[in-house]
Specification:
By secondary structure, the chain is mainly β. The chain has helices spanning about 180-190, 195, 230-240; strands at about 5, 15-20, 20-25, 40-50, 50-60, 65-70, 80-85, 90-100, 100-110, 115-120, 130-135, 140-145, 150-155, 170, 205-215, 220-225, 250, 255, 260-270.
């Protein structure tokens, strides 16, 4: 399990070029698409019949970051064994996918090479069991999530083996008032008539906006992935930027950076 939480992992990159059937994409330090100038990692997708061989590299050292096979030139379509490495060459992460989006296991490691986490995924969507370890090898936490009702169970221990009460293994960032509160905020603050005033013909105009919720719950780095026009992009960014603090995401009982993607649709009727 990745220490940085994110709604989507490795979506389509912003900066792409192809040459001799090789597609190159650029990502930041937590796997989010970025420009070549700001990239920490770049990936080369080599076309092979109906799939792609991908090798990723650290920009600074040109050392291998990851290797895998993909059904598309995209990290979301991995199949088979996916491996990631630290810059010192030690294995960072090892995952197995038996089909598009169907993961079997995921093992992560400390930079020293010691085991950090082992996760086994069940047959039900969203079902998995994770065991996390201190670098000493002692059990840190045992986490279980049921795929049917999404119920979770977590047990955590200090390095002496004593139970840690009220331990939160993983929790997504949340708007005050939850999902319903977030929806109400958008409805109340969006100028839904803006595209009409700007002459948009009948139709739906969806803007996809990404932003970061930092460890204190502040919203920053608000960006739009597309621009349907008629002022919709700027309006979507404006509303999210003016929003209140969120409740920070939690991983291993500590606040962490969380990246969120939100679709906002403006509808112009006949």
């Amino acid at each position: 399990m990745r220490i940085f939480l994110t709604i989507l992992f490795f979506v389509c990159a912003i900066n792409v070029f192809a040459q001799d059937k090789v597609i190159v994409k650029y990502y930041d330090s937590i796997g989010w698409p970025t420009t070549k100038e700001h990239a920490k990692i770049y990936s080369e997708f080599q076309s092979r019949d109906s799939f792609y061989n991908c090798t990723s590299y650290y920009v600074s050292s040109k050392k291998i970051y990851s290797k895998f096979v993909s059904l598309d030139s995209d990290y979301r379509s991995c199949i088979g064994l996916v491996r990631e490495y630290f810059e010192n060459g030690n294995l960072k992460d090892s995952s197995l996918y038996i089909s598009r989006g169907k993961q079997v296991f995921d093992y992560t490691f400390y930079e020293s090479g010691k085991r950090k986490e082992s996760t086994r995924f069940g047959n039900e969507w969203g079902q998995f069991v994770t065991d996390a370890y201190y670098e000493s090898g002692k059990l840190w936490a045992h986490f279980y999530k049921n795929g049917m009702d999404q119920k979770t169970k977590c047990e955590a221990f200090d390095e002496d083996g004593k139970s840690i009460p009220n331990y939160i293994y993983s929790k997504a960032a949340e708007f005050p008032g939850g999902l319903s509160g977030w929806q109400k905020f958008l409805v109340r603050n969006l100028n839904v008539d803006l595209p009409i005033k700007n002459g948009a013909p009948p139709g739906k105009y969806t803007v996809y906006v990404t932003f970061i919720v930092d460890k204190e719950g502040n919203i920053n780095d608000v960006k739009a992935e597309n621009n349907p026009g008629y002022g919709t992009m700027h309006e979507a960014i404006r509303v999210i930027e003016k929003g209140p603090k969120w409740e920070a995401a939690i991983q291993y009982n500590k606040p962490v950076i969380y990246r969120h993607k939100q679709g906002i649709t403006f509808v112009v009727s006949n």
